C-alpha cells in the first residue's frame, strides 16, 4: 500500500503488486497493456516510474499505443469504440 487510503470509493484495493521484485502494473504499462489514470495524492510513490514506463510504451507504439486514437490522452481513458 501507499501513504493514502487503502481502498477507493468502490472498495477496490489500492495496492502495489510485486513478483520477484518486479512491479507488475509498471510492467503492464511499459508493455502497452494499460495507461496511467486515476492517480491522486498521496498515492504517488511510483508515479515517476509509471510515467517513464508509459512514455516508453507510447514511443515504441506497443499495445494500446499501437492503435491510432485508442487512448484519449486528454481525458486519460480509452476510446473503446475506435478499436477494431
UniProtKB/TrEMBL annotation:
Domain named TNase-like: residues: 6-66
Entry superkingdom: Bacteria
Signal peptide location: none
Pfam (any one): SNase
Name recorded for this polypeptide: Thermonuclease family protein
Organism: Bacillus cereus
Lineage: Bacteria, Bacillati, Bacillota, Bacilli, Bacillales
Amino acid at each position: 500500500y501507499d501513504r493514502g487510503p487503502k481502498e477507493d470509493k468502490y472498495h477496490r484495493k489500492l495496492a502495489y503488486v510485486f513478483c520477484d521484485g518486479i512491479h507488475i502494473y509498471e510492467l503492464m504499462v511499459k508493455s502497452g497493456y494499460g495507461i496511467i489514470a486515476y492517480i491522486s495524492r498521496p498515492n504517488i510513490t511510483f508515479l515517476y516510474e509509471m510515467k517513464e514506463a508509459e512514455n516508453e510504451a507510447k514511443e515504441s507504439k506497443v499495445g494500446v499505443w499501437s492503435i491510432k486514437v485508442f487512448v484519449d490522452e486528454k481525458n486519460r481513458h480509452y476510446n473503446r469504440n475506435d478499436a477494431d
